[in-house]
Amino acid sequence: IYGSGQAYEALLLRLRAHPLPEARAYADDMLNELRKVIPSFLRRVDVPDRGGAWSNYLATNRSAMSEVAERLFEGRVDAEDEAAVRLVDWDPEAETKMIAAMLEPHTHLSDATLLAEVASMSAEDRRSVVAAYVGQRSNRRHKPGRGLERVNYRFEVVADYGAFRDLQRHRMMTIEWQDLTPYHGYLRPAEVDDAGAGAEYDRAMATSAGLHDVLARQFPDRASYAVALGYRVRFVMNLNAREAMHLTELRSAPQGHASYRVVAQQMHRAIADVAGHRLVADMMSYVD
User: Fold this and answer.
1) Strand partners, 236
2) What is the DSSP-derived secondary structure letter of residue 86?
3) Does a structural domain hold residue 115?
4) In this structure, is residue 229 part of a structural domain?
């Protein structure tokens, strides 16, 4: 792991609030080693009324939310038996706001005036603004500017855990996930069937699910350890159009894993067809 002193402080504060004792033990070990090289950055981490109070705040809130959710929903599960990508929230006026944001640094007009002007523009003029802003992209690394950050999307995704972990690495977005469980079924790669190992694979996954269910009764925070990574997990992503461009173009590339390629492709399709943001989707010209 490589990071700044401030980043390590934030990481250690969260680890010290973690429900799993092994995570808290890693925090202690990391703090001991880091203090050998950057002691001044980490003075507050284990001071009871500073970092200690912060970690206690995080742990207390997490516990309180778990109790409230259990009281309200009593362990209900919306189980799904296949992968899914759903665009669940977007702004119908986002493209108008985006075009206004694209123009703003190049004018002396107020935000309100620009919004009104763009709202009355012809479709041809709107497309011309977007075309000028995007320019001639020679490859996916040529990214338009921050005007795209005026557009936001919320996706709900059910995908195998391996695909989730790859998508979780993206940083210009908010990603929240539920516990890894066997509730949403699992991915069985075609290669397993081609090798004649389908039945054996299914037995292994069933064993994994059974162990999870046994552990969950007494150790709910630890039960996910028993779940094979081919099982699916539900998560949500909040991201702006600039990050959506980066994610969908990168993760749909032919050399990527099929699981997250499908997620990226369906996200792009939803931006165009569900949100109706075709100007946004058309900018993502390197989605494969």
Assistant:
1) 156, 176
2) E
3) no
4) no
Taking the model in full, what pTM does it have?
A: 0.92
Report how far residue 259's alpha carbon sits from residue 34's, in angstroms, rounded to the nearest whole number. 37
Domain count, the chain: 1
- Res. 25 pLDDT band, cuts 50 70 90: very high
Interatomic CA distance for residues 126 and 144, integer angstroms: 16
pLDDT for the residue 202? 98
Written as one letter, the residue type at 230 is G
Q: Report, as an integer, the average pLDDT of 10-27.
A: 97
251 in a structural domain: no
Q: Are 265 and 287 in contact (CB under 8 A)?
A: yes
- Cα 57 from chain centroid? 24
- Among 75-84, 101-110, 272-281, name the one with the lowest average pLDDT: 75-84
The pLDDT of residue 171: 84
Q: Which two tokens stand for residue 128?
A: 């011309």
Strand partners for 173: 239
> 68 lies in which domain range?
5-73
**135 assigned to some structural domain:** no
